[in-house]
Amino acid sequence: MRAIPDFIKNMILLGKLQKEGWRIMDIENPTERQQMAAVKSHVNNIVYIKEPTEKVQLAVVKEWPSLFQHIKNPTEKVEREAVRNNVSNIQFIAKPSEELQEEVIERNPYNIRYIKNPSIKAQMEAVNKNAYVITGIQEPDAMVCLAAATKVCKGNIGDVNPDVDIVMEAKKLFSRLDNISS
């Protein structure tokens, strides 16, 4: 009996993956072509691929950006594309670049709320665009709080007591301002 050539086996396997992409989990080291067939079957199949190639990762985040959080070890290019398609994806990036943080804030300063540990530069950029975004920053820098308060008070905040926790005071100020404007 003759053995089935490998290329025919691969074609049969690709056919199966196009219909039942989840079967990719049974393949130890799937080729890029096999990975693509699985995610074309349904993009959710990315969760079954241990090490998807960059091309496969990009195809997934372009079609369904919310699946970015399920991609292990995305490349910087994939991170950029995921954030470009859905800014909230920046929350799934451990240490987003300064440039990526700026891009997100440029779109809308309130997007800073999605950045886990925004840089001081990013915080300042967001506050300069809109002082009220300070309320969306988990742990704002003291100088950023001072800048936000100064902006809201039109530069007339007087001397700041060095014994005062400016971060706490800024949060109180902005929560009171929110209550007043509501």
Q: Concise description?
A:
With 182 residues, the protein is mostly helical. It is built from eight helices and no strands.
Overview of this structure, please?
The protein is mainly alpha-helical and 182 residues long. 50% of the residues lie in helices and 0% in strands. The protein has eight helices and no strands. The chain has helices at 6-19, 32-41, 54-63, 76-85, 98-107, 120-129, 142-152, 166-181. The longest helix is centred in the C-terminal third of the chain and has 16 residues, at 166-181. It is rod-shaped. The chain starts with 5 loop residues before the first helix and ends with a helix. The model has no long low-confidence stretch (mean pLDDT 83).
Low-confidence stretches: none
Structural class: mainly alpha
In N-to-C order, the SSE pattern is HHHHHHHH
Q: Which outline best applies?
A: rod-shaped
Radius of gyration, taken over Cα atoms and rounded to an integer in Å: 24 Å
Strand portion: under 5%
Number of helices: 8
In angstroms, what separates the terminal alpha carbons?
A: 81 Å
Biggest sheet details: none
Q: What is the mean pLDDT?
A: 83
- How many runs of DSSP E, i.e. beta strands? 0
Helix % is 40-55%
